[in-house]
């Protein structure tokens, strides 16, 4: 195993995923397979290959700095589970 | 044992673009909550971010001004964290392959200039604003600021004192404002600073455990916060204690720093390349074009002022701290070639009213040509330096020319000898007791007579002439 159950739980917590015991062991095996695949990749001789920023030879398009209309306020707030005036209302979390 | 501090700063500067980093919403400050949002900056599924060309241009400007190298290819990354100020639950930032690295700036310290290394300058998007309810366990979220372009400037741990940190901060602030890519407003948060600080015995090279300081929203608070934190570290280490690596908040009311004791677990941002954004390419030609368009920067300007105008380094430093002020100075000198007098006036009278009215150079009703005219009137003896201050205040308030004000208010200096003679002889007649004191050898009463003459002439008497006539008349009396 290249990954522990604790690591799976840790990653799940960071992603706010609440997993059953069954799911945990399922993901443990799947993640393990993925990590094993990295070993296969690591075995490739890439000594003389330039590192690349992306697998495609395309670069990011840029846009001009022009303001366009934003969403009307009622649409901007349409998906809010809770509101206070024009603000989204959320449980208080003080870091 | 003596300890020294090791300080590194992270500066976040909002770029002065009209639209956001990855969408076309306005960046305007002060709009009603959530008025400037769209599906992209709200992180709706199915949207794609497209980067703002001007934000990239501004970042390159700053990078070049800080002697950084520009990476021909850079990449955006996702910084993942779970907090409601970000609707996507990640911030688009740069991690591996930032747009620029390996720069430096020169700062002024009491021991002379010092070179401070810059690790990297990268681009990212700002987060939204949370207002916490005082009574209820809820917060209100405004996403207007979400997606506003920022640059993060990371220094090397090259600073040793809070004063150096403050000098570095001022230097970078001034460069950003000179380049007109950031408004530099610390209160509104367009220029923010976090500090990493640790202590170690003087003479050692290994770093101690560091803490990160946040919430120091003024130059003064950065110094205060660092002083507090360095003392805290030093005391703990002296007593054989251990520093805990953590983030601490500066409390401006107590001047202390307090642990943030986060309920969240240790920050684990799990950076990875943003699959929504392709690598960013910057070609050499564009870099050269931007380089050629850079304005004269504060340090160069200061040197030139000292050399070309022969003004003291202190004056040159004050005048070049703001690009607008420096340009104003140069224009006045253009009309009236006495740089030291111009510098004195700008540093005292002009800066006094700017500060009192919280006004800016460009809004000044006193145009450079008019200030030059006023200074010429002093030089020509038409008005005294003291009256000139009154005239200046009037110019500041009304925008009228000094000529007009002096004429209308009858402020022309009295240089008529016979008029002054009669004023002075009347004052001597009216004050026999003081005259007697003078004749008894208490020559300091001359000051009293001069004061009386100024009072009688409403400050308009030519001071040189007053002194001359006064000493003539007094010497006649003592003869």
What does this structure look like?
Chain A has 95 residues and is α+β, with helices and mostly antiparallel strands. Chain A has a domain at 5-42: Histone, subunit A (Orthogonal Bundle), CATH 1.10.20. Chain A is 38% helix and 9% strand. Chain A contains 3 helices and 3 strands, in the order H-H-E-H-E-E. Chain A has helices at 5-14, 21-42, 73-76; strands at residues 62-63, 83-84, 87-91. Chain A has a two-stranded antiparallel sheet with strand order 2-3. The longest helix of chain A is centred in the N-terminal third of the chain and has 22 residues, at 21-42. Chain B has 479 residues and is an alpha+beta fold. Chain B folds into 3 domains: 3-288, no CATH class; 297-409, no CATH class; 417-478, Arc Repressor Mutant, subunit A (Orthogonal Bundle). In chain B, 40% of the residues lie in helices and 20% in strands. Chain B is built from 15 helices and 17 strands. A 9-stranded mixed β-sheet of chain B has the order 3-7-8-11-1-12-13-14-15. In chain B, helix 2 (162-178) runs antiparallel to helix 3. The N and C termini of chain B lie far apart (73 Å). The model of chain B has no long low-confidence stretch (mean pLDDT 89). Classes of the chains: A alpha+beta (95), B alpha+beta (479). Strand 1 of chain A pairs parallel with strand 2 of chain B.
Keywords:
heterodimer; A: 95 residues; alpha+beta; Histone, subunit A; 3 helices; 38% helix; B: 479 residues; Arc Repressor Mutant, subunit A; 3 domains; three-stranded antiparallel beta sheet; 17 strands
pLDDT averaged over residues of chain B: 89
Main pleated sheet of chain B: 9 strands, mixed
Percentage beta strand of chain B: 15-25%
**Termini gap of chain A:** 36 Å
Q: What is the strand arrangement across the widest sheet of chain A?
A: 2-3
Q: Care to count the β-strands of chain B?
A: 17
What is the rounded distance between the termini of chain B? 73 Å
Please work out how many helical segments of chain A DSSP would assign: 3
Helical/strand content category of chain A? alpha+beta
- Work out the count of structural domains of chain B: 3
Please summarize the sheet with the most strands of chain A: 2 strands, antiparallel
The chain-level structural class of chain B is: alpha+beta
Radius of gyration of chain A: 23 Å
Instruction: Bin the helical content of chain A.
Output: 25-40%
Share in β-strands of chain A = 5-15%
Spatially, the strands of the biggest sheet of chain B line up as 3-7-8-11-1-12-13-14-15
Give the H and E element order of chain A: HHEHEE
């Amino acid at each position: 195993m290249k990954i522990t159950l604790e690591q799976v739980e840790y990653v799940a917590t960071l992603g706010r995923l609440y997993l059953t015991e069954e799911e945990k062991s399922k993901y443990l095996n799947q993640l393990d397979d993925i990590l094993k695949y990295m070993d296969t990749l690591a075995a490739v001789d890439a000594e003389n290959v330039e590192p690349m920023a992306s697998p495609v030879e395309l670069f990011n398009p840029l846009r001009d700095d022009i303001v366009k209309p934003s969403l009307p306020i009622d649409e901007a707030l349409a998906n809010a589970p809770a509101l206070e005036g024009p603000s989204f209302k959320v449980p208080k979390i003080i870091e | 044992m003596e300890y020294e501090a090791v300080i590194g700063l992270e500066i976040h500067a909002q770029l002065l673009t009209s639209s956001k980093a990855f969408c076309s919403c306005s960046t305007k400050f002060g709009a009603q909550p959530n008025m400037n949002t769209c599906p992209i900056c709200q992180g709706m599924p199915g949207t794609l971010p497209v980067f703002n060309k001007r934000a990239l241009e501004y970042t390159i400007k700053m990078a070049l001004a800080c002697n950084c190298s520009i990476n021909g290819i850079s990449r955006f990354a996702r910084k993942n964290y779970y907090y409601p100020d970000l609707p996507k639950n990640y911030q688009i930032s740069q991690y591996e392959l930032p747009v620029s690295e390996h720069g430096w700036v020169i700062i002024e310290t009491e021991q002379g200039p010092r070179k401070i290394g810059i690790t990297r300058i990268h681009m990212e998007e700002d987060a939204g604003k949370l207002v916490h309810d005082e009574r209820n366990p809820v917060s209100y979220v405004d996403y207007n600021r979400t997606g506003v372009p920022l640059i993060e400037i990371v220094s090397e741990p090259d600073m040793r004192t809070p004063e150096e940190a403050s000098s570095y901060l001022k230097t970078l602030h001034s460069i950003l404002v000179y380049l007109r890519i950031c408004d530099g407003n610390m209160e509104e948060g367009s220029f923010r600073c976090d500090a990493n600080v640790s202590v170690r015995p003087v003479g050692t090279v290994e770093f101690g455990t560091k803490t990160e300081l946040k919430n120091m929203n003024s130059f003064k608070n950065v110094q205060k916060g660092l002083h507090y934190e360095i003392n805290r570290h030093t005391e703990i280490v002296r007593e054989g204690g251990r520093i805990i690596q953590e983030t601490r908040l500066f409390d401006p009311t107590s001047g202390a720093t307090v642990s943030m004791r986060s309920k969240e677990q240790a920050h684990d941002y799990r950076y990875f390349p943003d699959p929504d954004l392709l690598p960013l390419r910057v070609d050499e030609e564009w870099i050269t074009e931007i380089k050629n368009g850079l304005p004269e920067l504060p340090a160069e300007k200061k040197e030139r002022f000292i050399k070309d105008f022969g003004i003291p380094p202190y004056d040159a430093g004050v005048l070049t701290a703001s690009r607008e002020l420096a340009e104003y100075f140069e224009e006045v000198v253009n009309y009236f070639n006495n740089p030291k007098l111009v510098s004195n006036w700008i540093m005292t009278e002009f800066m006094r009213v700017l500060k009192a009215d919280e006004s800016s150079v460009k809004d000044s009703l006193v145009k450079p040509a008019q200030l030059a005219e006023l200074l010429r009137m002093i030089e020509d003896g038409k008005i005294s330096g003291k009256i000139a201050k009154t005239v200046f205040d009037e110019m500041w308030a009304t925008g009228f020319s000094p000529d007009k004000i002096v004429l209308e208010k009858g402020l022309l200096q009295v240089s008529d000898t016979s008029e002054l003679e009669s004023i002075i002889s009347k004052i001597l007649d009216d004050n026999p007791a003081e005259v007697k004191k003078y004749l008894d050898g208490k020559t300091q009463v001359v000051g009293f007579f001069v004061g009386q003459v100024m009072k009688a002439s409403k400050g308009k008497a030519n001071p040189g002439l007053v002194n001359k006539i006064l000493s003539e008349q007094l010497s006649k009396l003592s003869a």
